């Protein structure tokens, strides 16, 4: 809970006046099977009181999410591929996919004149919710576009683009360790055996640049 307050995602509610109504949003913890030492707080907006939940009265908005197949195909289009993630973007309300996607695209649009139309195109066409995936012909082009996208989203939307992974070591070396995916820090793709990178349900082998699947 303290982390939620520290990130300004919640604040202490004032005391209720006599006769004033309030709504209580339940919260529970979820553990990821691959991260057993970390707990993620989830707001249960589907919890019902008197047969009504918060999600029941929220407008879902337009469906703005890109095609999953299209995003993955664009990741395979060129030689140098890179993926990144928006920090703490997604929440458990039915309206959030539309709101969050609109906010992301609006930030890129606001920075288009300063940071370039290719940043806007990247955000509009190759993001899937909070995951950005793209490929370009060279490492220098990839580094340049990703850095400008990071600057745009932070300045225009206070959105941090991090957890970077790439099949190119020069690209990985161009970003601070704080921005690299945690399991890839200090990894040399030419020497070390890199762990599999998960990207939208697929396992991406960065060293031989191939997708694999795990079936249970």
Secondary-structure blueprint of this entry?
Elements: H1 2-6, E1 27-32, E2 35-43, E3 48-49, E4 52-53, H2 68-75, E5 80-86, H3 96-110, H4 112-115, H5 117-126, E6 127-128, E7 131-136, H6 139-157, E8 161-166, H7 169-173, E9 197-199, E10 202-205, E11 210-212
Antiparallel strand pairs: 1-2, 3-4, 5-7, 5-8, 6-7, 9-10, 10-11
Protein name: Peptidase aspartic putative domain-containing protein
Organism: Mytilus galloprovincialis
What does this molecule look like?
The protein is α+β, with helices and mostly antiparallel strands and 216 residues long. The protein folds into two domains: 2-57, no CATH class; 68-212. The protein has seven helices and eleven strands. The chain has helices spanning 2-6, 68-75, 96-110, 112-115, 117-126, 139-157, 169-173, and strands at 27-32, 35-43, 48-49, 52-53, 80-86, 127-128, 131-136, 161-166, 197-199, 202-205, 210-212. The strands form four sheets. It has a four-stranded antiparallel beta sheet with strand order 6-7-5-8. A three-stranded antiparallel beta sheet has the order 9-10-11, with no helix packed on it. β9 and β10 (202-205) form a beta hairpin. The longest helix has 19 residues, at 139-157. It is globular.
What share of residues is helical? 25-40%
Order of helices and strands: HEEEEHEHHHEEHEHEEE
Radius of gyration: 20 Å
Report the β-strand fraction as a percent range: 15-25%
Estimated structural class: alpha+beta
Strand order of the largest sheet: 6-7-5-8
Shape designation? globular
| Main sheet record | 4 strands, antiparallel
As residue ranges, the low-confidence spans are none
End-to-end Cα distance: 34 Å
Number of helices: 7
The tally of structural domains comes to: 2
How many beta-strand segments? 11
Mean pLDDT: 88
